[in-house]
Write a structure and sequence with these properties.
- The longest helix is centred in the last third of the chain and has 18 residues.
- The chain is globular, with a radius of gyration of 18 Å.
- The chain is an alpha/beta fold.
- 32% of the residues lie in helices and 24% in strands.
Length: 256
């Protein structure tokens, strides 16, 4: 694939206890593409995402974002490079007692390392960025509402707005709909799809629901026991290949 925004080359992760969580994963993701990483719990998909995000250092291989190698960076250099990657987790991780817009403004802190921001205050000129991000997820009317009053789906959309306020080139979403009901899950996946296609971000989304992967992914990577079994457009994946991700998984030694 030409013009890749994110590139993973031969990523392998072996933990100190000898567990091989990831073995030889290689792929590329372009701007404007939504890639779904799919597989059974414990297949290595979240380990793969954490290696891409720089939250874990792979035993072997490297990750590049916009042509810059992240693997091996430390300290300030790593923090700066990771600003290109917005993270969305399974839980929204909002501060319930604070307003929605204050939670979104937290996404700007990586660019604003000052005494003011360390005291929990945000520069006024970041407010338009936060409001723009809330508008992108359809929640600008909730800006001054306490985060604790939101539904699960709304909270997850606010967490996406917080990631967008970072002005990243890519979003990495780790099981972003696992705690949501089907309607809210579809809303979040529709939002991620729109962000990739309309705004041109590369989006990598870890899921365990094949039906959502088929419905929203431009490409799907299927993983089992730390290995990539397939990497293809949803319509090109045979039912037997999808089923293979979820057969014979009990009692395995691989974990996330």
């Amino acid at each position: 694939m030409s013009g890749a925004l994110i590139r993973a080359d031969d990523l392998t992760m072996r933990y100190p206890n000898g567990t091989l969580a990831l073995e030889g994963a290689s792929f590329e993701v372009a701007a404007g593409e939504l890639l779904v990483i799919l597989g059974h719990n414990g297949c290595g998909k979240s380990t793969l995402l954490r290696c891409i995000a720089g939250l874990q250092v792979p035993t072997q291989g490297q990750v590049s974002v916009s042509g810059q190698v992240l693997t091996g960076l430390t300290g300030r250099a790593l923090s700066t490079a990771r600003m290109k990657l917005g993270m969305v987790f399974q839980q929204a991780r909002l501060v319930g007692r604070r307003s929605v817009i204050a939670n979104v403004l937290c996404g700007t802190l990586g660019r604003r390392q000052t005494l003011t921001t360390m005291l929990g205050m945000f520069p006024r000129d970041d407010a338009p960025v936060a409001l723009e991000s809330l508008d992108a997820v359809g929640l600008s009317a909730f800006a001054n509402q306490r985060a604790s009053t939101l539904s699960g789906g709304q909270a997850q959309r606010v967490s996406i707005a917080r990631a967008l306020a970072q002005k990243p080139a890519a979003l990495l979403a780790d099981e972003p709909v696992a705690s949501l009901d089907p309607d809210a899950a579809n809303e979040v996946m529709q939002l991620l799809r729109r962000i990739s296609s309309r705004d041109g971000l590369a989006v990598i989304c870890v899921l365990h629901q094949p039906e959502l992967a088929r419905r929203y992914g431009d490409r799907v990577i299927g993983m089992k026991k730390g290995r990539v079994l397939f990497d293809a457009a949803p319509e090109a994946i045979a039912a037997r290949d999808m089923d293979a991700l979820y057969t014979g998984t009990a009692g395995g030694s691989y974990h996330e």
